[in-house]
Write a structure and sequence with these properties.
The protein folds into two domains: 4-117, Response regulator (Rossmann fold); 131-224, Orthogonal Bundle (Arc Repressor Mutant, subunit A). The chain has eight helices and twelve strands. It has helices at residues 12-24, 35-45, 61-71, 85-94, 106-117, 156-166, 175-182, 192-209; strands at residues 4-8, 28-32, 49-53, 75-80, 98-101, 131-132, 137-139, 144-147, 150-151, 172-174, 214-217, 221-224. α6 packs across α8.
Length: 230
């Protein structure tokens, strides 16, 4: 088996089709139709990825994702029948790695699952040196960011976005370049995900340092600017 996928959706037809396609692709699949059950099964099975519907009985997908993120960095692919950008952005801010709007192609869903799982979450090269700047330092191997004596609380994706920008201090990175470095070249989603995560990282850095260290370069992308220390 390639890994375990937890499918959380209150529509039996979607659960059945999703299970069939994922099992055919080589995954072990566990299904549940409500929010509380999703949290229970996530703890029991420790899935590699959770396909999570936004609208669920008992507890909606937003709350399920938020609770999962309190203790887990499991990949989350959020499903939603809503097309409004605000709903998609809200899901990404909570910690979803990607989203898919209903109705969707089961083949596309499998492709997105495969693309997400190809990401090297939480892994850094042992040789990565600590990056030191005027206001804080980044430990790529330990995956920690310190502002003075304060440890910044960043999600895995937020850390990866900051690291990508910091490694190119003073240079502008396009959204496409950030996606390639953080999500991988085969990412299926929209580049709007970059704006969401950069915004979150920028706010956390500003709260910790009182400085704006990530700048928007209109029409191009983003640039991290700080004084590098030897």
């Amino acid at each position: 088996m390639l890994g375990t996928i937890l499918v959380v959706d209150d529509e039996a037809s979607i659960r059945n089709v999703t299970r069939a396609y994922l099992e055919h692709a080589g995954y072990q699949v566990v299904c549940v139709d409500n929010g509380p059950g999703a949290l229970t099964l996530a703890q029991q099975h420790q899935p590699d990825l959770i396909i999570l519907d936004l609208m669920l009985p008992g507890m909606d997908g937003m709350e399920v994702a938020a609770r999962l993120r309190e203790t887990s960095e499991v990949f989350i692919l959020m499903l939603t029948a809503r097309s409004e950008e605000a709903d998609r952005v809200a899901g990404l801010r909570i910690g979803a790695d990607d989203y898919l709007t209903k109705p969707f192609s089961p083949r596309e869903l499998v492709a997105r699952v495969e693309a997400i799982l190809r990401r090297r979450r939480g892994v850094a090269a042992p040789s990565d040196r600590i990056l030191r700047f005027r206001y804080f330092q980044i430990d790529p191997e330990g995956r920690e960011v310190h502002a003075g004596d304060t440890l910044l609380e960043l999600t895995t994706t937020e850390f990866d976005v900051l690291l990508a920008l910091a490694r190119h201090q003073g240079k502008t990175l396009s959204r496409e370049r950030i996606i390639e470095q953080v999500w991988g070249a085969d990412f299926y989603g929209t580049d709007r995900v970059v704006d969401v995560y950069v915004g979150q990282v920028r706010r956390k850095l500003e709260a910790a340092t009182g400085e704006t260290l990530i700048h928007t370069v209109r029409g191009v992308g983003y640039k991290f600017v700080d004084e590098t220390k030897p």
